Structure formats: C-alpha cells, structure tokens
Amino acid sequence: MGRRKDIRSSAALYREFREEPPQRARQVQFKVPHAVAVMGQVEFIGYMTTHAGKTHLYVHQFAQGSRPVLGAGKGRNQAFLIGGRYRVTDRGIVDYGPGGREVRSRDRYKIDVIKR
After folding, report:
1. Cβ atoms < 10 Å from Cβ of 103
2. Residue 97 pLDDT more than 50?
3. Helix or strand or coil: residue 99?
4. Is residue 80 exposed (0-12), middle (13-18) or buried (19+ Cβ within 10 Å)?
5. Distance CA 88, CA 12 (A)
6. What is the pLDDT of residues 58-79, one digit of tens each?
7. Whole-number Å distance between alpha carbons of 73 and 52
8. Are the C-beta atoms of residues 62 and 84 closer than 8 Å to each other?
9. Using 50, 70 and 90 to split pLDDT, how confident is the model at 109?
C-alpha cells in the first residue's frame, strides 16, 4: 500500500470505530527488529478510548486459535502483536477461525469509564 492509501484507510477505520473524524494525522516512526523475543500468547488486550463521545475501557479476550503472540525487541517501545487470526474493525477486535469465518465470543466487553 502507498503512504496516501495507508493514511486514508487508517482515517476511515478511526472514523468507523470512534464515530467521529480524526482531528489530525501524525507520522510515527519506529524500527521493526529483524528478530524478537517471544514472550508468550496474548490471552486478552485492554485499551481505553473515546467512542461515540464517551470514554470506555475495552477488553477483548482472544478466542483460542486466534491468539497472537507478544514479541519484544531489545529497544525501547518494542512490543508487537504477531500472528493470530484477528482483525481490527469498526466493532473493535474481531477473531477469525481457521476457515476465515468470524468467531463470536461472549468474552468481549466494554466498560464505561467515569472521568475524574
């Protein structure tokens, strides 16, 4: 993908998930190491974001067989989700089975967060 196409598709995903247009784009540079230490399988991931004007804590428990591994580079800020069968969509993280079908799980949830 070209740089402009990457920016457009990232902005579209942001808009679909956050239900608002991105305010700005910024270029982030990072080094991808040639090798990483595999720390283990990622069972779940939690992240806080604003969605539809409210702050939420999203927790996604990966389905068995869809889990990525956590790889770590030697440098700072080098943690990577590698592999797995999932995709980030307007609904958040969605797991897929070996045949490419979406895996529905009851273990995904969001928690409304009260700002202090």
Report:
1. 16
2. yes
3. coil
4. middle
5. 12
6. 889 999 999 999 999 998 889 9
7. 35
8. yes
9. low
As a whole number of angstroms, the distance between CA 75 and CA 106 comes to 36
Enter the tokens of residue 78: 């080098």
**Token duo for residue 32:** 């991808």
Identify the pLDDT of residue 51: 75
Query: Which two structure tokens, joined as six digits, stand for 14?
Result: 């942001």
Domain boundaries, the chain: 35-116
Q: Could you tell me the strand order of the sheet in which 92-96 lies?
A: 86-89, 92-96, 102-103
Distance between CA 96 and CA 87 in Å, rounded?
8
The SS3 call for residue 43 is coil
